[in-house]
Amino acid sequence: MDNGLTGEISSFQLNIRPEDLTRSDPSRLTVQQTLGNSAFVDNFGPGLATIVISGHTGWRGTESADGVALFQQLQQFVYYQWHALRDQARAAGQDPNSVKLIFADALDGFASIVAPNQFILKRSRARPLLMMYQITLTVLASELDAALAGDSEDDFSQFDSLLSQDQSTLGLESLQGSYDLISGLSAGDLASGSLFDPLAQFLETAVTTLNTGIGVIKSTAGPLVGSAADLMGLVADVSRAGRNALYTLGAIANPSDYGSQAELMGAASAFDNAYCVVTNVFSGMKTNPDFTDVYGASSCSSTSGGSPISPLINENAFETITPEPTTLAAVTTDAQSALDTLKITDPATLPMDADDLAYMLSTAAAGISFP
User: Fold this and answer.
1) DSSP, res 63
2) Cα-flanking dihedrals φ and ψ of residue 186, to 5°?
3) Please, are residues 307 and 296 in contact by the beta-carbon 8 Å criterion?
4) Which of these three, 164, 186, 214, is where a domain ends?
5) Contact predicate 296/302, CB 8 Å
6) Residue 208 sits in the same domain as residue 342
7) How far apart are CA 370 and CA 91, in angstroms?
8) The pLDDT value given to residue 54
């Protein structure tokens, strides 16, 4: 929210992502029916888009406020404060449009200046502890650079800082949380007998893999490509394999106390969250080498039209242009096969037995190394 009167920027971040988000982009069209079974369309350009979000603020909320308090803060921020600030601007003889409510959706990649059409409280007998909201927003401007052009330089820098917590930042925080939980796990609390050593080895390898991946994310500016993207694929494989392994262990070990079962499920959830974050946020992009200089390197290719003589005509072209691969992690064929098996196993309907699980964990852990 841009105050407009004082230039102060304030923000409200939902503690739980909306359950539903709908954005409608209409066109201002009028269809005119004519005689002779035909028609023509008056096109007045795009109309104002509408965003509808619905969800809840939880029950326990956060450490500082419960779900009810968070719902009241959300309503105050989005609805009452927007109207109050516009009234204050009008009373002070200023343009009420200087008050800007900005909706930023890092997941879908857009940010817009909006106006609140409706703020609805919904209660349900099926979910009696939750205060649910439905907010309808009208998009006033999607091109934020142009919309904020009249603001001061300081205001714009504050707006930049408001949007600085983008998807990558939030994803890194979530991945770091999973890493902290996984690094604190003890194999002795989760398994015994023949499964203890394999699980301990796998957890050690998983911690190293996640830590290496987090380090690469922090040190890389821009999209993850090449060896960094390959590493993210390994982090996803290890996370998914760890999730299924722990779910399988919970299905076949039959722990005698609920504490062990709860720890298994909590550990599996940490691996599951790491897998989701990596695949949804840090999956990376695959790139191909630039083969432009190869065109014209063969004997007569430059005379057939389209390509000049290649600068690599007297060299081994492919050896020259293909860079020496950089490897952040090495995975043996057996280890990759074990990871693939753990990734596709069904812990609920067809869990593998203890011997197979121990073998897969040991093989996967032994075949992953970091040069």
Assistant:
1) S
2) -120, 125
3) yes
4) 164
5) yes
6) yes
7) 65
8) 94
Same-domain status, 31 and 158: yes
Tokens representing 204 are 């050690």
Interior CA angle at 358 toward 259 and 361, to 5°? 95
Q: Are residues 152 and 188 in the same domain?
A: no
Count up the domains in the chain and report the number: 2
Strand partners, 50: 24, 138
Residue whose structure tokens are 């409706």: 118
Q: What is the dihedral of CA 293, 299, 301, 302, to 10 degrees?
A: 70
**Please, which residues bridge with residue 23 across strands?**
51
Amino acid at 90: R
Give the C-alpha separation, 368 to 208, whole Å.
Answer: 10
CA 232, 238, 244, 246 torsion-angle sign: negative
Tell me, yes or no, whether 122 and 64 share the same domain.
yes
* 344 & 221 share domain: yes
Asked if residue 9 belongs to a domain, the reply is no
Q: Is residue 7 part of a domain?
A: no
Any idea what DSSP says for residue 77?
A: I
Extract the tokens encoding 234: 């390994």
Q: For 192-220, how does the pLDDT look when each residue is reduced to its tens digit (9 = 90+)?
A: 888 889 999 999 999 999 999 999 888 88
Q: Report the predicted TM-score, pTM, of the whole model to 2 decimal places.
A: 0.54
| Start-to-end Cα distance in the chain | 48
For the stretch 253-277, pLDDT in tens is 665 544 577 788 889 999 999 999 8
Place of tokens 């090495």: 330
Residue the block writes with tokens 């005119």: 32
- And the tokens for 216? 């690469």
Final residue before a domain boundary, out of 116, 137, 164: 164
Only one residue has tokens 């359950």, namely 19
Report yes or no on 6 lying in a domain.
no
- Shared domain check, 176 and 152: no
Q: How far apart (Å, rounded) are the C-alpha atoms in residues 211 and 350?
A: 32
Which single residue is written with the structure tokens 């200089």? 293
> Are 158 and 180 in a shared domain?
no
Domain assignment of residue 59, given as a range: 20-164
